[in-house]
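Data availability excerpt. The first of two example chains:
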Amino acid sequence: MDIPKDIFTEPEDVDPDTLANLGPLRRLAGVWEGTRGVDVNPKADGPETRKYYERIEMHPIDPQANGPQLFYGLRYHVHINTPEEDIAFHDQVGYWLYEAATGLIIQTLAIPRGQIAIAAGHAKPGAKQLIVKATRGQTEYGICSTTFLEQAFRTDSYELTVDFHDDGSWSYVSDTMLMVKDQGLFRHRDHNRLSKIAEPDLNPWAKIAKGAA
């Protein structure tokens, strides 16, 4: 990307209403549930397939600036369970971010097993599909893991594809390429389809602006 000479001055024409400026991420805002999840993960005896259900909350945050770069975004929390267990199968937090000036979309993710990642792609407002990718070893959009995960289940790449459907639901396919110790390369895949059960909150600045109005 082209870096401007002035890297400090933040934009002044910032709209406090994040929901109105999310571009292709707008359709993700809200509270979602999905019961058709399928996970394929590596085990000692070979691939294991598990069914799961999940709840995802995505609420707008106030606009964020890196000097002249401006993001509108969503803070999200993913919680996944399986039908046969009461304990959490997977938990994940992060942000979806959109830069209107370039069409850049970013997903940050963190999981409580010692792994974080930043995945990126591009999309236009109204896009019916989003694709973000991260690659191990990259300093811009990459993956960072604990020593154990690096040596036992090294994550070489991550790709998430989101498809929006005409009924308002959306689905995703997540492909994570793992280098499993003594087994080799493994494609860890998750997919599910989610329906909205509640609308998103307003971001704090939008609440203040609407209260003032």
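And the second chain:
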Amino acid sequence: MNTETLFAAGLFAVVSSVTPGPNNTMLMASGVNFGFRRSQRHLWGVNLGFTFMLLCVGLGLHSVLDRFPQFYDVLRYLGSAYMLWIAWKLASARPSHTSGATAAEPGNPAILRPMGFWAAAAFQWINPKAWVMAVTCMSTYLSPNAGAAQVALLAGLFMVMGAPCSAFWVGFGQAMRGLLQDPLRLRIFNITMALALVASLYPMLKG
């Protein structure tokens, strides 16, 4: 893999990682509701989970799954159901009047804690944008006769370039906490993020 290809792959990694999508929407919401430190497991679950997905796709998973196109339909509907559930939890969260985080009250269906590492990593497999990014990356920048070392290099490059982009969204959310200390503003923000998650389902269901 030459320098020109690596540069192009790195640019693709930055652009695709920093643009809005389900992961970044959820990471920004986590930054607002829980702060940067408490969102670290979510953040690393996204980055390492997606890196593992890239490795699997680059080593041949995509070609195997192409033989079973019904599998993509299953992923699409499972992903849609899970994202709707996350959107409902986010929209129905009742903000705390003291900390700017969601209130942990009995019977409250809100998100009571940040998404964990394994949940965020597993989410990549039902995230439509993650699939598009992984397949596009490996089919565009990887030669047909590439070995495992080149697959690992490309996946590692994506993590190095993409992780700061994901962290930016958490940091942006953290920076907004001061503006969203008011419970009403935080509630409006959470509902807006929930609607953004729902809107991101349209391209997936349309396809």
